[in-house]
Amino acid sequence: MTVPETMRAVVLTGHGGLDKLEYHEDWPTPTPGPGEVLVQIGACGLNNTDINTRTAWYSKSVTEGINAGGESGFDSAEAETGSWGSSSIQFPRIQGADAAGRIAAVGSGVDDGRIGERVLLDPWLLATGDYLDPSRSMYFGSECDGGYAEYTRIRSENALRIETPLSDAELATYPCACTTAENLVARTGLRPGETVAIAGASGGVGSAAIQLCRLRGARVIAISAPAKHALLAELGAHQVIDRNSDNLEQAIAAAAGGKIDVALDVVGGGMFMPLINALRQGGRYSTSGAIAGPLVEFDLRQLVYKDLQLSGATIVPPGTMQRLVRLIEQGLLKPLLARTFPLRELGKAQETFMQKQHVGNIVVET
After folding, report:
1. What is the C-alpha to C-alpha distance for residues 184 and 75, in angstroms, rounded to an integer?
2. Cα separation of 259 and 250, whole Å?
3. Hey, which residues does 279 pair with through a beta bridge?
4. 167 neighbors 174 (Cβ within 8 angstroms)
5. Pairing outcome for strands 151-155 and 36-45
6. Which domains does the chain have, with CATH numbers?
């Protein structure tokens, strides 16, 4: 493949609103280093990390959720702790974790035979040894440049060969959503026959979690806006309840016929305590986000006297994406592509993403 010296890219110039996203047509094309490959990007999916990083929402000083346009709600953010690992981000930065494409060139130490391979990128650049050390484990598009460009470079082992009739846009719905969902589910040790409630079920992580829970033989209760109920039922949810129910805990109990075994949450805010209250004795709760707000009131008696297990789920264990690629190739995980945008309209795509009116994932195509 002939690789041009410059490329189209959307560059994040600092923390703030959508005006911090700049479209360029003459950005320098990266060169793969030792052990790396250069990937020509076909599509790259959006996720909450993009918004959280742009707005420095990860800062511990932020106490609110981000507004629907990602333009406010982060006034108290501290830029020096603006990444998921509570560290600073170097600008300019090309974001985008969920990339699919083909290998265009390889660095030293990588087999030339990989050139032309169709690949799906694993966004977790994990450290050897203690992979849970956030100071040494990086996220693609956060601590290094990502996929909102025509080309990107990444470690060879993170460019996973995939054989599938799915389009690049469909493949770009998987990496962040599926690895996050798999980590959420795995942290709870979900077993066949158990009942799980999923908050934020219509988003990329939630819709992936529905499918992964079904593959484990669990009974799934999805929580979302009424307009999305039919699609979630088609995806595999056994029952779907309104997230705006007057008494959400009671609605969950009615759907479950009693208490639930597991709660998966990417919403936080006012969703937290109803999920906790809905758990049975010895129930398990796992969270990977807080789009409705990071601060919650918590009755510790629920934790203590119900013997609950609570877990956070961020850094994904090694091998997770490789296993998911096999499921994708077997057709066991359905892509849920909500809408596509051209690369130059990434700002508009983020604005649409933040409105949360879609089911599944929004993707930009290069």
Report:
1. 30
2. 10
3. 260
4. no
5. antiparallel
6. 6-174+335-365 (3.90.180.10), 177-312 (3.40.50.720)
pLDDT at res. 78: 66
Distance CA 128, CA 262 (A): 31
**CA nearest neighbour of 206 among 93, 47, 51:** 47
CB hemisphere CA count around 48 (13 angstroms): 26
User: Per DSSP, what are the bridge partners of residue 36?
Assistant: 155
Structure confidence by residue, pLDDT tens digits, 154-166: 999 999 999 999 9
In whole angstroms, give the CA distance from residue 349 to residue 21: 12
Residues 203, 336: contact at Cβ < 8 Å?
no
Question: How many angstroms separate the CA atoms of 235 and 143, rounded?
Answer: 34
Q: Are 222 and 256 in contact (CB under 8 A)?
A: no
DSSP H or E segment with residue 150: none
How many CA atoms lie less than 13 Å away from 324 in the CB half-sphere?
30
Q: Which helix (H) or strand (E) holds 145?
A: none
Low-confidence ranges of the chain (pLDDT < 50): none
Show the tokens assigned to 174.
């998987």
- pLDDT tens across 2-32, in order? 899 999 999 999 988 999 999 999 999 999 9
Structure tokens of 228?
């999305």
Cα-based distances in Å from 194 to 142, 180, 235, 260? 36, 20, 18, 8
Contact in structure between 329 and 171 (CB atoms under 8 Å): no
Which residues have a Cβ under 8 Å from the Cβ of 120 and sit 6 or more positions away? 99, 100, 160, 162, 171, 174, 175, 321, 325, 328
Close Cβ partners of 88 (under 8 Å, ≥ 6 residues apart): 79, 80, 81, 82
pTM, two decimals, is 0.90
End-to-end CA distance of the chain: 17
